[in-house]
Structure formats: structure tokens, C-alpha cells
Amino acid sequence: MSNLVRIARRIIVSRPQQFRRMESSDSVERCSAPTSKGQSTTIAVGQMRSTSDKVANFGQVQELVSRAKSKNATMLFLPECCDFVGENRAQTLELSETLDGQLMAQYRELAKSNGIWLSLGGIHERNSEGKIYNAHVLVDEKGELAAVYRKMHLFDATTKEITLRESNTVSPGERLERPVKTPAGMVGLQICYDLRFAETAVLLRKLGAQLLTYPAAFTYATGKAHWEVLMRARAIETQCFVVAAAQQGWHNKKRQSWGQSIIVDPWGRILADCGNEKELDLGTAEINLSTLDSLYQSMPCFEHRRNDLYSLTAYNIKGKEPTEDRLFAENIVDKRTIFYESEYCFAFTNLRCVVLGHVLVSTKRVTPRLCGLNCAEMSDLFATVCMVQRMLESIYQTTSATVTVQDGAHAGQTVPHVHFHVMPRRQGDFCINDQVYIELDNRDENKPPRTMEDRIDEAQSYRAFLDCS
């Protein structure tokens, strides 16, 4: 085993607390629920009124599960704050639990004993920062955690009825999570205020989402004004089913939620609507994923996007296990040496390294020069390069890097395919700092090729780090 791989693995082992977080792509492989063409399933959306009484709130969840099962639903979507609504910051922190706590164990057993998937729309997940995450947790029909999304957009706003500063109590999430394979298709996870940001909805659709879910505790005034129109807009613009479980009524003397749990089809039609009067209610709908293909064909909006003129790129999203070798000009990059893939790019271990940790990032489309890339490829390529740089500096405990591209033969490019060199730098690694560029030019002559086994081991270490970070 090379020194490089030993270093990467040592860093990974030393940070076990970060690796308990779920990766949504893993859950894709575990779910065997039918989502193929021509098949439909019944889903349920719940409405409830949570208070600071966790036992009573869990009783409401049990009742909704019972009703969903009686309707033969394969998946039940529950609102944000389905665990509780605290009356103040101190109480919220006191009542919060980690995802391996007692309440989550009860939710998992409830899903398992009823053989139903649960979307727990917003759990107060205690973290190590003295705050919580607003965590959307998916539990499968076997009671296993299938995915966790931590809310990115925090509601710091003043309305006619209330002033809320979610950031006083909640730490923001760090990334979108890839859509998860469920009985309801590929589900993209969001929470409440995320609804107002169309960009994340479009990104989730680009990542393969067929259904978007927005569990919420919308304030009464904003819900009355915007709730339904926003749900229908997200469905129409992404051509996805939209499911939004909602809190309803007064949680305490200071806070009231709008309600109106809803299911919307990709054409913007409402399939189920619980209204805003009942504190405990359930809506159901039968969804057929085979209808999506005909919609995409008749209204091919995502094929008509002008990637040459504008782009939308997600940063820091988890990669998937590479499934195929990639072309690098006329060379073949073995998929086992690829440690990260984005929509348009891939990162892989190097045949000849100038410094420890020297890797390459290239585009999936074979293009000789930077000027040949479209806008989407440019954005994705540089975002990927920055993410890889951050990863290498975390693993090798460095604070500097040489990031360079040789754009064309006269600039030293030997492989006619756009690619970046990312090299973590250390003090004194060269007598003259810019000697790195000379070494880069001369590496074919001065550096022996590394073994395939060494490169594969290195890639596996990087993948493990990214999966768990």
C-alpha cells in the first residue's frame, strides 16, 4: 500500500463522527419497490398539529400511519416538525435528539411494523455545534434510514404575524442530496422555505427526481398568500409530482401554521388537498410514473435549456459510484481510478504524480480546448475542481494548492482533452516554488508510471472520504 493511500485512510479513520451521515445514493440500491413504466402506487400525505408534547405528537403520527395503511399507501409523507414544535429556543434544544435517539427508534419501528415508507419531514436533529439541523429523514419499509437531507435555506424573516429567525437555533445543511429511489419513484428532498428557491427544484429534476417533497410548517399569512401557487409552480416547471405535508393550527400562543397538505401532478393539477381547517387529516392519490415520459416528449423543456448560454450547477453534491470507463482524448480511464463524477466532469487518479495527491479533473465530453466548452460544462468543471481541491487539502492537511490547466500544445498540453491538474502543496516541496511547472512538463521522462493497483486504492480512499464528509 502506498504512502498516499495510508495518509488518506488515516485521515478517514480519524473522523468517524462525520461518516454516520446517510448517503442517499446508497439507499437507491436497497429499495426494490416498483417504479417502472406502467406501474402506479398509492401515496399518502399527512396533516397534523404538533406541540411541545412529543408523546402526543407521536400518537398523531401513529394515527396517520394507520389511516395510510387502510388506504393501501406504500409511502406516507409527514410534515416538518412532526416530532415537536418548541415554544422557545431553549425548549427546542432540550427536546431535540440525535438520529440514533429514542424517538427515531420509534419512527423506525413504526415503519417496519407497518411495512410502509415514512418521510419524516423535519426532525430536530441535535448536532455538535450547540444547535440543531432541520433534517428531512426517509425511513424505508424495513425501518432502515434511507436518506437524510438537512435544510439549506433558513427562514429568517418577518411577516405580518410573526418574526422568525431559524438561524438562531438551526445550522444550515451543506448540500443537496441526490434523489432517492422509493415506492413513489425518485424522490427529491426539500423542507418548507426551500420551496421559494426554484433553483434547487430544477437541480433535483436534473439529478433524476420524479417527485419533489416540501414538508412544511408554513406561517398562516404566507401560506394563505403563496402556498398553493408555489406548489403548482414547482410541479409545472420541473415536470415532477409534488407532495407537501403541512402543519395546521395553533402550536402555541405565538405560532400558527396554514395547513393544506397537498399532492400536485406534473401538469399542476391538484390530486389531494387536506384544506386548512382540520388539525389531523390524510390525503391520498394514485400516481403513475409512466405518465412522465409522455409529458417529457410533448413538452421537452429540459431538452430545450440553453446550456451554451446559462447554467445551474450544484456544488458539493455527493458523487455516485462510477459505472463506466471514460475517454481521456484517445486514452481510456479505468472506472476504478475515477473517484468523483459530476454531471459533466470526472476526477481520477494520476498515472505520474508531480507531488503527493496530484490528481486530474476532466470533462466527460472530449474537447481539446477550454474555448470548446459550453457554459454548463465550464461551471461544472470549475466547481468540481474546487471541490477536489478542498478534499485534497482536508486529507493531506495542506493549506495551498497548485491548480493549473495546459490549454493547447504550445502551453504544454500532451493529452488533447481539457483537464485540470490539482496538486496539494507543502512548504519546501520544491527548491524554487515554480519548479512545479517544470516537473509537470518533464514528468513523462522523470516519473515512472504508477501501478493500476496503487491508483485504484487511492481512488477508493478518496471516494470513502467524499461519501462520509
| Helical stretch tally | 11
Q: What share of the residues does DSSP label as strand, in percent?
A: 15-25%
How many strands, which pairing sense, and closed or not: the largest β-sheet? 8 strands, mixed
CATH topology of the largest domain: Nitrilase/N-carbamoyl-D-aminoacid amidohydrolase
What is the rounded distance between the termini? 23 Å
Radius of gyration: 24 Å
Cofactor: Mn(2+)
Family: In the N-terminal section; belongs to the UPF0012 family.
GO molecular function, one term: bis(5'-adenosyl)-triphosphatase activity
Active site: 419 (tele-amp-histidine intermediate)
List keywords for this structure.
single chain; 469 residues; alpha+beta; Nitrilase/N-carbamoyl-D-aminoacid amidohydrolase; HIT family, subunit A; 2 domains; eight-stranded mixed sheet; six-stranded mixed sheet; elongated
Structure description:
It is an enzyme of class 3 (hydrolase). It catalyses: P(1),P(3)-bis(5'-adenosyl) triphosphate + H2O = AMP + ADP + 2 H(+). Residues 41-289 form the CN hydrolase domain. This protein is α+β, with helices and mostly antiparallel strands and 469 residues long. It has 2 domains: 16-303, 4-Layer Sandwich (Nitrilase/N-carbamoyl-D-aminoacid amidohydrolase), CATH 3.60.110.10; 312-468, 2-Layer Sandwich (HIT family, subunit A), CATH 3.30.428. 30% of the residues lie in helices and 25% in strands. The protein contains 11 helices and 23 strands. It has helices at 3-13, 24-30, 54-70, 89-95, 102-114, 198-206, 220-238, 290-298, 375-396, 435-446, 452-468, and strands at residues 40-48, 75-80, 117-126, 132-139, 145-150, 156-158, 163-165, 180-182, 185-189, 211-213, 241-244, 246-250, 256-258, 262-264, 270-273, 281-288, 326-328, 331-333, 338-341, 345-349, 359-363, 400-404, 419-425. The strands form 5 sheets. Strands 1, 2, 3, 4, 5, 12, 13 and 16 form an 8-stranded mixed β-sheet that branches. Strands 8-9-10-11-14-15 form a 6-stranded mixed β-sheet. Helix 3 (54-70) links the parallel strand 1 (40-48) and strand 2. The chain starts with a helix and ends with a helix. Mean pLDDT is 92; it is low at 15-36.
